[in-house]
Amino acid sequence: MPGLAQRAFAEWLGTAFLLAAVVGSGIMAAKLSGGNVALALLCNTIATGAILVALILTFAAMSGAHFNPAVTLAFALRGETAWRDAAIYIAAQISGAIIGVWIAHLMFELPLLQLSLTQRSGAGQWLAEAVATFGLLLTILGVASRTPAAVPYAVGLYITSAYWFTASTSFANPAVTIARSLSDTFAGIAPQGVPAFIAAQIAGALLAVPLAGWLWGGAPAKRDARPLAS
């Protein structure tokens, strides 16, 4: 079992790469799509789904490849991640996400420090975030209960789909939500929209945990590194 420092660093680095991909691909897509928002979103979707598969395959054996406080919370509630470790994971995820956004800005020669002006609010978007996170957790827990090796592909495919079937384009991740508020680019969200998105995401995760336990049984023996992610 890798040490906590190694696992936390894996969560930090993986989440940084995830946000660099989400924000960076959004910037590139906006530049190349000629104002076609649907095409830009499609490009952003493909990059996000692909990087999730790659990152989960890379870091699953190290930290579990959560990259998402909602996922870490779910595993803590199931007794699979110690609460102390969960707190450190979440801090690493949030800080890594912010660094990933800044790296994307630097790569595209944009101002490092930004605040998004993109308004994402309303009951439909909040419901979408709850649904997206609920579905993500069910996907992770359900697939992991039977075929853990398939989790990276299931997560990547789920997020690729959820970008399009949810009104919010499926943030489904509090660290992602916080970090994207710091980018006034295609993938951004205005800071005032962040608290409601995070509340909806946590609600979705809290609903998914007991349902997953009922459908597929309780958590296996406690372990911190397993092929699960966000």
Automatic annotation (TrEMBL):
Cellular compartment(s): Membrane
Topological relation to the membrane, as annotated: Multi-pass membrane protein
TM region positions: 39-65, 86-106, 126-144, 156-176, 196-216
UniProt keyword annotation of RNA-binding present: no
One of the record's GO molecular function terms: channel activity
Pfam families linked to this entry: MIP (PF00230)
Family, per entry: Belongs to the MIP/aquaporin (TC 1.A.8) family.
Name listed for the protein in its UniProt record: Aquaporin family protein
